[in-house]
Specification:
The chain is 36% helix and 19% strand. The chain is α+β, with helices and mostly antiparallel strands and 413 residues long. The strands form five sheets. It has a six-stranded mixed sheet with strand order 6-5-4-1-7-8, with helices on both faces. It has a three-stranded antiparallel sheet with strand order 9-10-13. α1 crosses α2 and α10 runs antiparallel to α11. It is globular. The chain starts with a helix and ends with a helix.
């Protein structure tokens, strides 16, 4: 992304702030795994969406004034010893180039700068990226910052910035669509590699190795999210990630994978028989999913309430399964469809957007995901594609990845 992308995002966010309000965003901290080993750092996606910076212990200030706003970015100072052992830290000139922020300061200044900003601008409220999920701790630092402000400035109102960001991230800009299109090409390379090398007796970790290798040839060193690659009975675990199973002759291989390119991540699923030839029952169920997917890409357009998209997928697929003799009544659909059929993608694979109350409009990108799980027949798979809503309808961004029975069997010959 060019710096203008992040600059425009900050400008849009500031337009939703009140005069006398300060927004604080943190990139997050490095987490210890064990002994002297750390987990790989993963920057908070909202912070990246506003800055393009993916370095730990970085802080962004946005201060809304009567007219306009000011912005400051705090980064780690140079440390020759630390950088010798780990990685080079981003320097102020590079941080300014990436983010478009001119006022770059070192991290040790943030507390005094916070006090000065609150005093000089008569700040009455602070916006924080408070992402609370039941039973899960938020590691982006917002909760810690909330405690710091409440202790030091007890009269301060704390406001959650998440609702603003969710609305902003709902509609993708042209540069985000371009990034997704490139990510789809690389996703195709990974999926096709798995199909081409598929054979009975192949372990799931071998499929994963083929996928990872294909991505690396395009400069992508890790997948967009933890790959779901399974075979046979393991297909009935929706978020399976063990990779220890072996594909027996006749087993279906399920993959649910993605690629991150320029921060945007795809999410594509395909299901194929490890031996390269669909059985009658596999083909029957797969074509139910395929026809449902095709139907959705024919009818999706602006103006549809997002909650209805899931319902439409479920109802149409039920019709296909009933016609195939699998279902007798709609009450049975939960036996074969275990999860929703539409979630947004973007900076996160399950993108943090305000989707529940949304109506489809141009620029939205979400998955059309048809999963069919027939435990009695031992067949489980999903067909998942990435849908871009356009002014006059929609476009399947992942349509070039083999998805019909004929296309997949042709690749696997």
């Amino acid at each position: 992304m060019e710096a203008i992308f992040y600059l425009e995002n900050r400008r849009t966010f500031a337009e939703h702030m009140n005069p006398g309000e300060l927004a604080v965003f943190l990139s997050g901290e490095l987490l210890r795994k064990s002994a002297d080993d750390d987990y790989g750092f993963w920057a908070n996606r909202n912070f990246v969406y506003l800055t393009g910076i993916e370095q730990r212990d970085s802080i962004l200030f946005l201060c809304k004034e009567e007219e306009g706003y000011t912005e400051k970015l705090f980064i780690l100072p140079p440390d020759a010893f630390e950088e010798r052992w780990n990685r080079a830290r981003i320097k102020p000139d590079r941080a300014a180039e990436v983010s478009g922020i001119n006022d770059i300061r070192y991290l040790e200044e943030w507390q005094s700068c916070l006090a000065d900003t609150i005093r000089k601008n008569k700040i009455r409220s602070v916006c924080l990226d408070l992402d609370h999920k039941e039973g899960r701790r938020n590691w982006n630092g917002a909760d810690w910052m909330k405690q710091y402000i409440e202790t030091g400035y007890p009269e301060m109102e704390i406001r959650n910035s998440l609702p603003i960001l969710k609305k902003m991230r709902l509609i993708k800009k042209p540069c985000e669509i371009e990034a997704l299109e490139r990510a789809e090409q690389i996703t195709k390379a990974g999926i096709v590699a798995m199909m081409e090398h598929s054979r009975p007796g192949m372990y799931e970790y071998q499929y994963k190795a083929e996928y990872d290798y294909a991505l690396a040839q395009h400069g992508v060193l890790e997948p967009g999210f933890s790959s779901i690659i399974s075979a046979g009975k393991n297909n009935f675990c929706i978020h399976y990630d063990s990779y220890r199973g072996k594909a027996a002759d006749g087993d279906m291989v399920l993959n649910d994978v993605g690629v991150r390119w320029d921060h945007l991540v795809t999410d594509v699923s395909r299901g194929w028989p490890c031996n390269g030839k669909y059985s009658e029952r596999q083909k029957l169920l797969y074509e139910c999913a395929y026809r449902t997917s095709q139907h959705m890409f024919e009818i999706l357009k602006p103006g549809i309430p997002m909650p209805d998209v899931d319902k439409m997928i479920r109802e149409y697929n039920y019709g296909q399964l009933k016609e195939a003799g699998v279902c007798c009544s709609y009450d049975e659909i939960g036996t074969y469809m275990w999860h929703g059929g539409a979630h947004h993608i973007g900076f996160d694979v399950h993108d943090m957007v305000s989707a529940r109350e949304a109506v489809t409009e141009a620029g939205m990108v979400f998955c059309v995901d048809i999963g069919i799980y027939h435990e009695e027949w031992g067949i489980g798979f999903r067909l998942e594609d990435n849908c871009l809503i356009t002014a006059g309808g929609c476009r399947n961004l992942s349509a070039d990845i083999p998805r019909t029975v004929e296309e997949i069997e042709s690749v696997m010959k």
